[in-house]
């Protein structure tokens, strides 16, 4: 848990330093916009799911890798999004990323190479980052990126906490609990997709 927090904090600091070199405007309003932005339902569900999956599927002591991968891909793709890069049907793809994370939770207790899971996390995070970046406020990228990275890290930590609770409370039925959570998440993603 401490390692996840340290990694998330380090990624947020690194992103701030990198973005400060490339962008001007460091107003507190951009920080606040960044802090609030990840609370959209699609982003929130995906980020919590990454934390849960990381505890459930990665080897002991390596649950920090899921959130760290997400944060790194998020800040890189957000910078690209702020520069104007986008993909067609981005919001649709983001909704489907929630479905993907639901499926990952359903199979979390089955062996899967960590590299595949982390690759899927990075790909999904890139979609979320492009969306964040494309909505960069006029006040600048640095404060905005710091805000959404801090909120994302906090959501990952809440997912890690939920994953640890599932492990402790549903030890023998952990697969059922994760599968139920994954099915609910997948359903939510399909619902969000249908609303677009």
Give the gist of this structure.
With 196 residues, the chain is mostly helical.
How does this structure look, described?
The chain is 78% helix and 0% strand. The protein has one domain (2-17, 28-194). The protein is globular, with a radius of gyration of 16 Å. The protein contains eight helices and no strands. With 196 residues, the protein is mostly helical.
Kindly state the number of beta strands.
Answer: 0
Radius of gyration: 16 Å
Calculate the terminal CA-CA distance, rounded to whole Å: 36 Å
Would you identify the regions where 5 or more consecutive residues have pLDDT less than 50?
4-27
Q: Whole-number average pLDDT?
A: 87
Provide the structure class. mainly alpha
Q: Summarize the helix and strand pattern as letters.
A: HHHHHHHH
Assess the beta-strand content as a share of residues.
Answer: under 5%
Name the assembly state.
single chain
Question: Which percent range fits the helix content?
Answer: over 70%
The tally of domains stands at 1
> Helical element count?
8
Silhouette:
globular
Please summarize the sheet with the most strands: none
Topology overview:
Layout: H1 2-22, H2 28-36, H3 41-57, H4 65-82, H5 90-106, H6 114-134, H7 141-169, H8 174-194
Which features characterize this protein?
0% strand; globular; mainly alpha; 8 helices; 196 residues
